[in-house]
Design goal:
The complex is a heterodimer of chains A (150) and B (64). By secondary structure, chain A is of the alpha+beta class. Chain A contains six helices and three strands. Chain A has a three-stranded antiparallel sheet, with helices on one face. In chain A, helix 1 crosses helix 2. By secondary structure, chain B is mainly alpha-helical. Chain B starts with a helix and ends in a 24-residue tail after the last helix. Classes of the chains: A alpha+beta (150), B mainly alpha (64). The interface between A and B is medium-sized, with 25 and 27 residues.
Chain lengths: 150, 64
């Protein structure tokens, strides 16, 4: 995925690399340093993951997971390289499966929590329909974090 | 060390990338981790890895 991300960002990264956040710049730029053989091997590993995901999705319309594995953190914490917030979303991006995140409540500290829904390839209609039904049924999207203590 | 900082500096220059020493150090860590994982999981056979999944027929795919 790094190599593919670099392919997409190469022009912009060369011209405006300083405009990227350091974490994103380093992650994307790392894609420039893999060999073709390594990329080919990685695509084979990805194919194995896709086959497993296809099997899992045969019996369901969507998968539901936490969008992020831990509560939201501040930009100051982000600068210290906390755990990767994309760990639950990368696998489905890697497989090319459509996914969406919808609000699903708050932590005990009042921080918002997201629910990730993942559908089968090219089944965005089902994905959006279920996401909308969830939002209408729960109403979580109408609430905002209370950072002011009000 | 699979990829030295010196090589990264040279290659970044070749590819037209302006990266800080801190960028290169972090990238070196990424590469070390991922290239090691690839080395540790090199396939021992060529059969079963092709064709690309979009061309695989519906139904059981067999061992890969």
């Amino acid at each position: 995925m790094m190599a593919e991300a670099f392919g997409q960002h190469a022009v912009r990264l060369r011209k405006h690399g300083g405009d990227y956040g350091s974490r994103a710049r380093r992650w994307i730029a790392a894609g420039a340093f893999y060999t073709a053989a390594e990329y080919q091997q990685a695509t084979q590993a990805r194919q194995l993951w896709i086959i497993e995901l296809e099997k899992a999705m045969r019996r369901v319309d969507v998968l539901a997971t936490p969008t992020v594995r831990f509560p939201a953190y501040t930009l100051a914490v982000e600068a210290t390289y906390p755990p990767d917030s994309g760990a639950n979303t990368y696998p489905f991006s890697l497989a090319g499966y459509p996914a969406i995140s919808v609000p699903c409540g708050f932590t005990s500290d009042g921080l918002p929590v997201g629910l990730q829904l993942v559908a089968k390839p090219f089944d965005e209609t089902t994905l959006l329909h279920i996401a909308q039904e969830f939002q209408q049924a729960t109403g979580w999207s109408k609430y905002r974090p209370d950072f002011e203590g009000n | 060390v699979l990829v030295s900082l010196e090589w990264l500096q040279t290659e970044a220059r070749v590819q037209g990338l302006t990266l800080t020493p801190e960028d290169l150090e972090t990238i070196q860590e990424y590469l070390e981790k991922n290239k090691t994982a690839l080395i540790d999981s090199r396939p021992t056979m060529t059969e079963g890895l092709e064709p690309a999944y979009r061309f695989v027929a519906e139904g059981p795919t067999g061992s890969v």
